[in-house]
Amino acid sequence: MITASAPGKVYLFGEHAVVYGEPAVPCAIERRATVTVEERSDGRLRVHAEDLSLDGFTVEYSGDGETPDVDVSPDLVEAAIGYVDAAVTQARDAADASDVGFDITVDSEIPLGAGLGSSAAVVVAGIDAATRELGVELSVEEIAERAYRAEYEVQEGQASRADTFCSATGGAVRVEGDDCRSIDAPDLPFVIGFDGGAGNTGRLVAGVRDLRERYPFAADTVSTIGDLVRQGERTLTEATGSDPNAVPDVVEELGTLMDFNHGLLSALGVSSRSLDRMVWAARDAGAHGAKLTGAGGGGCIVALDPTDETETALRFTPGCEAGFRAALDTEGVCVE
Ligand code: MEV
Q1: How far is the CA of 49 from the centre of ligand 1 (A)?
Q2: What is the 246 CA–ligand 1 centroid distance (Å)?
Q3: Rounded CA gap, 320 and 299, in Å?
Q4: pLDDT tens across 13-50, in order?
Q5: Residue 16 CA: which ligand 1 atom is closest?
Q6: Nearest 5°: phi and psi at 308?
Q7: Does domain 2-184 fall into CATH 3.30.230.10?
Q8: Which residues contact 214 (CB under 8 A, 6 or more apart)?
Q9: CA of 249 to the centre of ligand 1 (A)
Q10: Residue 83: closest CA among 38, 35, 42
Q11: CB of 162 shorter than 6 A to ligand 1
Q12: Atom number of ligand 1 nearest to Cα 15
């Protein structure tokens, strides 16, 4: 039996646009998904999953498409099982063991489908644990590659490498097409607001794609996000290795860019009333900037605020279920 864990993430900038080859900067956060895997001889999969959005469900299935009968939203169960299945397929392929079955327990501190990279973390930790259980040790790069393939399959070809690479390596990363690398970033004062909901990544990505194909100005909006990310990268580069007293200015500038990024994502139709409410609550509380994170439609926002004001304000914001601080996690996938 092997247990591995991997971190979730927030997008400082660039979600959605990254799907079309623009750069993005996700940052791993200290909230992890933990996956325990034990081989079984009958070829079946038994998945027990628990996280902030699921009360906990157990399903046993042969992976032949049968729908488990459990008392949680079918959309969420389908999403969770889709990602676990895809991770299992990758692990079986990597270990050249196509018929092997597993008992899998997913224990996650990351709400499902809420923009904090829960599916990427589950897939990354799942591939690492399942391959190790079969006696194969993959490099972090190969785990990231296989996790990307798994997400790509579940999201029907509409996934970037950003979430999976960030979860595999930890820290702050920069992703542009196939080019993925770790970058230096100061310890940013992230505050997260969670509305208790979730967005359907596939549907939201498809919505942006339709707008982009229909209207040249929507395509321009996507490339403007790319310009904004490049500006953000310059700000981050100036910040690293420089006088720590300069960091407040850096945070202010990053916040301004985050506000701009949220506006552009809103224009692309991926915000929601509750996400906008939390973004405004953070700004009114004095955050340097705030934006939705991930696919949108519901779920989480991320704000930059070194004080307690945003966290307090979020606690009193209608529609906000949880407000909490999240630190950058420099540790990627690891064995527990
Ligand atoms: C989802 O967390 C981020 C998106 O950019 C999709 C992707 O990059 O695969 C919306």
Answers
A1: 23
A2: 31
A3: 9
A4: 999 999 999 999 999 999 999 999 999 988 888 888 77
A5: 5
A6: -85, 0
A7: yes
A8: none
A9: 29
A10: 35
A11: yes
A12: 5
CA pair distance 252, 232, nearest whole angstrom: 11
Question: Residue 177 phi/psi, 5° resolution?
Answer: 60, -125
Lookup: tokens for 87: 């991770």
Which residues, 6+ apart, have CB-to-CB distance to 234 below 8 Å? none
Q: What is the pLDDT of residue 320?
A: 95
Choose the weakest-confidence range: 4-18, 53-67, 95-109, 298-312.
53-67
Is the pLDDT at 117 greater than 60, yes or no?
Answer: yes
| Per-position b or e across 225-234, b if 16+ CB within 10 A of its CB | bbebbebbbe
Rounded CA separation 44/286 (Å): 52
- 142-158 pLDDT, tens digit per residue, is 999 999 999 999 888 78
For the structural domain made of 190-325, what CATH number should be given? 3.30.70.890
Which residues make up the CATH 3.30.70.890 domain(s) of the chain? 190-325
Give whole-number Cα distances, 180 to 25, 70, 109, 309, in Å.
10, 38, 25, 35
Residues of the chain with CATH 3.30.230.10: 2-184
250's tokens: 């850096």
Helices 216-239 and 201-214: angle between axes, nearest 10 degrees: 120
104 closest CA partner among 120, 125, 79, 78? 125
d(CA 105, CA 72): 17
Q: Are 308 and 292 in contact (CB under 8 A)?
A: no
